[in-house]
Amino acid sequence: MRRTVSRAVAIGALVMLAYGGAELVHFRAFCGKHLAWLRRQHDPAAVVVDDGFAVARAGDAIFTCETDHCFGIGGCHVDLGCYCAAASLSADAVAQLLDARSCVVDHLAPAPTDATGACRYAHCDDHIGP
Amino acid sequence: MPGAARLPAAAAAAFAAALLTATGAGIAGDQRLTIGVPLLAAGFGAACLAARRARQQAAVVVAAPWIADGLAAMAAIAVLLPPRDHPPTWYAIAYRAVPAAGILVAGLYASGARAARYAIWSAIALVVALQALTPIANPHPFIDVWAWSDAAARALLAGVNPYVVRAADVYRGGFAMGYENTVYPYMPLTVVANAPATWIAGDYRFGLVLCLPLTILLVRAAGRRLAVDAAFVDAMTLALVFMPRNTYLVSSGYSEPLLLLTIALFVFAAAARPFGSGAATVFLLLPALKQYVLAPPLMFVAGAWRRRAWRPLAIAVAIALATTVPFLLWNWHAALDGIVFQVRPSIAFRRDSASLTAVLAALTGIVPWHWLPEAAQIAVGGAAYWWLRDAGVAGLLLASAIAVDASFLFGTQAFGNYYAFVTMLLLMAALLFAGREREAVCAAR
């Protein structure tokens, strides 16, 4: 019994390690928000988000925020994302809610047709607040 | 050692297909396309292998020493799957601790020790308890499925047509899926099924909680009827208990637990009389519960027709229609609008699907043809049914799994909950193949 249980635990651990490895590869090479940050470092006019499902709700503004993204042994890197939050919030307040390094307003009144700024067509990565 | 059980070759392949499908569907987030979809595709391949074995190697028995390993791997993926929304800490811990215990139970199962039987029942109790606590831990899940289903059930209880009410947009316009839900987009029978729990407990998900224990009891009873090796029935039980999306289905309020229970009830009935009135009635409730069940009822009708089971067929069709027609008579326009909502050409392709088409779209930007899932299900279903036409009810379920799986893999929308249905079809096909001699006797009656 001890042998079969040990084997099951070893398989479980192996699966989790393999999954963790895949996540590490994604973190190091394919993290979309970090790639957006890198793009903006090279070109301050580069797009951060212009597709996806999340969009600004009525009364939302869109903020671009720099956050620290850490992955255990994989270390940390800087992410840049678009966040939808109430337009009544200041950039500092959004940064505090998100525990971000900093946030700046990208669109105060985003529109689905707006092809300007870092966060286009009212798209964002996540919603902040209710 | 149960893990080294010997099984009919088709049963082993169908069971492997179920584990691969359940595991692939359990992978979310960044690895959905890189790990999840390849596992789902492997599951489809294993299902096709099962079909080949069912016809060409029906008498072949193989060793299946990998069963406990597969169960442990599947439980490990369940540990990695986070609960939906932001539940209380105690629930989030329990959500991962229960499948972690499942890894140990898989090991105990492999040992064949006396303790294994207690461990399996303890595992069932743990998962059912976790599911029962789910509506309490997350009373208002952030998903439109729950909002719509809740509004529809409450409308029915108030005597209002559920297809004329409009649920509040839980997303407050924060998600642009490419379409706007304007009507309850599910089948009338789901409203009827959800209404009692809404009335008694205030949340229809408490009704969904009952589905897993009932499903397990029916599967185990069907296993006994079919004289299937008890160790394989235990493996089947663990596969159901530790399916990674299991509790997620309940927390989101998806209708799949009802579908799984219906399949289990069908297998229980079919184990006694494969094309009798009871089995026929239950099988034809599947399309009355979910619109994506398209080819399986056609296959069943063809099978019943070949066996001249006219009376069971007539009863089953009448009962299936009876679940829908009253709503059409109540307000045909509104009900039809809801029933066909998902197949409207305006319903956009979902790039967040777990499908081969989502992988293709991510790599090339190519978006599938709107009717591809329906076409795939009918075409693949036709071929699978023809190939398995003489494999009895096991063949029917396997062909159904292959057909529905194809429509998801090549579909415009496919999510983890969809594959729970495919997993269940594959598990039940495996159970029936494992008890094939008995089934053949029944079919000959």
Identify the strand order in the major beta sheet of chain A. 3-1-2-4
Shape, per Cα inertia axes of chain A: elongated
- Describe the sheet with the most strands of chain B: 2 strands, antiparallel
Average pLDDT score of chain A: 94
Task: Provide keyphrases for this structure.
heterodimer, A: 130 residues, alpha+beta, 2 domains, 4-stranded mixed sheet, 4 strands, B: mainly alpha, 2 strands, 69% helix
What does the secondary structure layout of this molecule look like, with pairings?
The complex is a heterodimer of chains A (130) and B (445).
Chain A lengths: L1 H29 L1 H11 L17 E11 L5 E11 L4 H8 L3 E6 L18 E2 L3
Parallel strand pairs in A: 2-4
Antiparallel strand pairs in A: 1-2, 1-3
Chain B lengths: L5 E3 H17 L6 H25 L4 E3 L3 H14 L8 H23 L2 H24 L6 H14 L30 H14 L3 H21 L4 H12 L4 H7 L3 H15 L6 H7 L2 H4 L5 H12 L3 H13 L2 H6 L1 H8 L16 H9 L7 H16 L4 H18 L6 H19 L1 H9 L1
Antiparallel strand pairs in B: 1-2
Helix pairs in contact in B: 1-2, 1-3, 1-21, 2-20, 3-4, 4-5, 4-9, 5-8, 5-9, 6-7, 7-8, 8-9, 8-11, 9-21, 11-12, 11-21, 12-15, 14-20, 19-20, 20-21
Task: Give an account of the 3D structure.
The complex is a heterodimer of chains A (130) and B (445). Chain A contains three helices and four strands. With 130 residues, chain A is an alpha+beta fold. Chain A folds into two domains: 1-30; 32-127, no CATH class. A four-stranded mixed beta sheet of chain A has the order 3-1-2-4, with helices on both faces. The mean pLDDT of chain A is 94. Chain B has 445 residues and is mainly alpha-helical. Chain B has one domain (2-444). Chain B is 69% helix and 1% strand. Chain B has 22 helices and two strands. Chain B has a two-stranded antiparallel ribbon with strand order 1-2. The radius of gyration of chain B is 21 Å and the shape is globular. The model of chain B has no long low-confidence stretch (mean pLDDT 93). At the A-B interface, α1 of A face α3 and α4 of B.
